[in-house]
Design a protein that fits this description.
homodimer, about 350 residues, alpha/beta, TIM Barrel, Lyase, Ornithine Decarboxylase, Chain A, domain 1, 2 domains, eight-stranded parallel sheet, six-stranded antiparallel beta barrel, about 25% strand
Chain lengths: ~350, ~350
């Protein structure tokens, strides 16, 4: 594609992707996961962009992870991967029919289950379509979200599956790994499976912050990380990335300087989102590293300049590293691909809004 | 449009609009604002849908409020209103050119300014296009966002405008009204304007929670409320709405019941958003009024059932009233228009993602 213009010509707010940092992040984490002896199955929810998934697969990823069926549909339509894991219970006839349609299109489409109800739904749909769907048992190893609540329940669900046609137990998965509780749960689970004489080919861990503690989880066979591809303030707070690893930046214009210590930018929660988790503000400013995005309205970002010796003026453009890059990807239809000071491409966010 | 299907046939997550409640909310607040003697200029950021703005104008609204140029573009393209106020500083040549193109298309397109820099930019662009742009001085009456910081600064900006071609001072605006600080600021500002012999034709207040205290703000001439059209948990917490006034609901499927007091639904922050403000959870469940949406991941909603005597099962569909309806509108491409148990129409969210 022949497309070049200066980054400074972009209107604001715009989401930019520093593509050389993306490549460096992909290479670094591929090396780290492969070095630990695991398959790398990156979660595409961070970028939602087939072009970037291709870079991950070219670097050695065995396939991709999707959270929702509609994400898998977008990536299969793009012809990106022939091995996809969907890490979300698929419930209801409409979705089960879509799952069957998708599973006919690639070599391996695996799913998860954490209850008999979910597993029986998949089994019945697979039987209707004369198919066998591989599944992992999702384990709640302490996060308090989905998942079986005990190692014994994981084994029981795997045992149940042997009596159900159309499903094939392939292992267990959890999110996130990296915690002592996750380690204990996985060790106990694998011991129970061994005692029951059931093979567990796949033990799938997840989460970018867990990348620093992979050595503590030798029982894993694959890892699913997402955020590492861009990085963000949360990743810096986790010690997994530094400023120069942050590839996604939101360009925004200062539209008001109502007081000496306050700047208002034209990017609010409709771009940056109000995701905080364990970070107490809403982003950092590349050009003013001592400034913080202290608050957000839908269209306004409030920057606290009190600790910043230099301060921007109305009309200046700043670059914001968001708290959480994954959710920013979901707010825009396209990202601008940047190398140096040039925009070299535009990637549609193919799976934006893919919640179905 | 001939389009009917059962609400229960909708896949999840889906955003539904109970259209009779929307009409009732529009009629009720139009009566309240008109009853206080003010012009009603609803903020379309809540719905972002031309069809609903038409209902507001049919009920008596004098025009609409948009936060960004791209919202105004969407609504002018739809031919909805010929009197629009954009309540966001317009900064930069690209946006000023778009403002000029828009202002030629409707009877009145007014803007705001809170600094000499912003005002001079508008003036220069207007001169280039031989146009006169009406503007209001934005006042920070305590919210800590945009706006001049004192009544004297408001008067000074209005006085400056008399020396600038292409701009016409029409009054002052603030967000939100309803607080003692806003009242004091406005009273002092209007006294200063009177002392300076400057007429202030428009005094524009904003915010749906302020609707309950309009009687305390007799100096207003118009009011800009948005959220009232749908209502949400924040509006209920503000005492402005009850459960039966909440017109926007997110239908979601229970995909996991990992423990007796926990249900996981397929609507997370990508639909409901993590906007909390002064509410401590993330939504209420219509069918289980004692349940709360206690936490959200991107695709998962965690419902706390501990106070709910009845509990949903995997596969059940529930209706969530979100914390903040405006931000939910921005997460989806379309909403399903519901009357009774039938989907009677689909409205595209025309200004979704309109941040430019």
């Amino acid at each position: 594609m022949v497309f070049m213009r200066s980054v400074s010509d972009l209107d604001t707010p715009s989401v930019t992707i520093l593509i050389d940092r993306v490549q460096a992040n992909i290479d670094r984490i591929q090396g780290m996961v492969a070095g630990a002896g695991f398959a790398n199955r990156p979660h595409i929810k961070t970028h939602k962009i087939p072009q970037i998934a291709r870079m991950q697969i070219a670097a050695g990823a065995v396939g991709i992870t999707c959270q929702k069926l509609s994400e898998a549909e977008a990536f299969i339509d793009a012809g990106v991967a022939d091995d996809i894991l969907i890490t979300f219970n698929i419930v209801g006839e409409k979705k089960l029919e879509r799952l069957m349609a998708l599973s006919a299109r690639i070599k391996r489409l695996a799913v998860v289950a954490d209850s008999e109800t979910v597993l029986r739904g998949i089994s019945a749909a697979a039987v209707r379509h004369d198919r066998v769907v591989p599944f992992l048992v999702e384990c709640d190893t302490g996060f308090g979200r989905n998942g079986v609540q005990s190692p014994a329940a994981a084994v029981a669900l795997a045992q149940l599956s042997t009596s159900l046609p159309g499903v094939r137990f392939e292992g267990v998965m959890t999110y996130p790994v990296g915690t002592p509780a996750a380690k204990i749960f996985l060790v106990e689970t694998l011991a129970l499976f061994a005692a029951a004489g059931i093979e567990v080919p796949i033990v799938s861990g997840g989460g970018s912050p867990a990348l620093t503690s992979l050595a503590d989880f030798p029982m894993l066979t694959e890892h699913r990380a997402g955020t590492y591809v861009y990085n963000d303030v949360m990743m810096m707070a986790s010690g997994v990335a530094g400023w120069d690893d942050c590839a996604l930046q939101v360009r925004a214009t200062v539209v008001s300087r109502p007081s000496p210590d306050r700047a208002i930018i034209d990017a609010g929660s409709k771009v940056l989102t109000r995701e905080q988790y364990y970070v107490k503000d809403f982003g950092r400013v590349v050009e003013y590293p001592d400034a913080v995005v202290a608050n957000l309205s839908e269209e306004h970002g409030m920057i606290d300049l009190s600790r910043s010796a230099t301060k921007p003026e109305v009309g200046d453009v700043v670059s914001i590293i968001p708290n959480h890059c994954c959710v920013v990807s979901n707010m825009v239809d396209r990202v601008y691909v940047v190398r140096g000071d040039q925009v070299i491409d535009i990637y549609p966010v193919a799976a934006r809004g893919a919640v179905w």
